[in-house]
Amino acid sequence: MATWNDTGYAGRHELSPAFLDRFKIRNCTMPDETAYRALGDCLVHGRQPRVVINGVCYQGGTDAALLPELATQIPDCDRFLTALARFQAGIAAMAERGELRTRGRIAITRRAFVDVLKETRDRLRTTGVAQPRREVVISAVWRALSFCLLERLDPNGERPKAIALLTACGIGADAWELPE
Length: 180
What we know:
Elements: H1 17-20, H2 33-45, E1 51-53, E2 56-58, H3 70-73, H4 77-96, H5 110-125, H6 134-148, H7 158-168
Antiparallel strand pairs: 1-2
Helix pairs in contact: 2-4, 2-5, 4-7, 5-6
């Protein structure tokens, strides 16, 4: 079993037909908002999603969460995860369509979603407070988003698009209006 990103992913080269002949090729679709939300649920609450593979349904269970402290540190954590999943799906779709890079394509992956949540957890840990104030959480999330994503984008073209999408998803720089 092997995985790889095709040539549409930044900096990748085409694999030789002889090498590819060693594998049965399965292409995965880009994750959508629901898939990102399920990933957030798994990371924060340990809830594994239900999956269907070749027509067979596998019911997910509950396991140890990787980032359980976010559930208590972030007010309205589930609403935040929904908004972040909506943003992630939107920004990934923009990147896939080539709307975020004038020279070459930028890839927005599941790893970026996980990195934002991990960085948020790490920044909230530095406060030394089990349940930080809402303003502290909003600032930590924005610093995590900046570090993991926004700073990679051109400040004169791509970054304003990403910030507009974040705001439309309810994740504002100074205040949140998270969807119900």
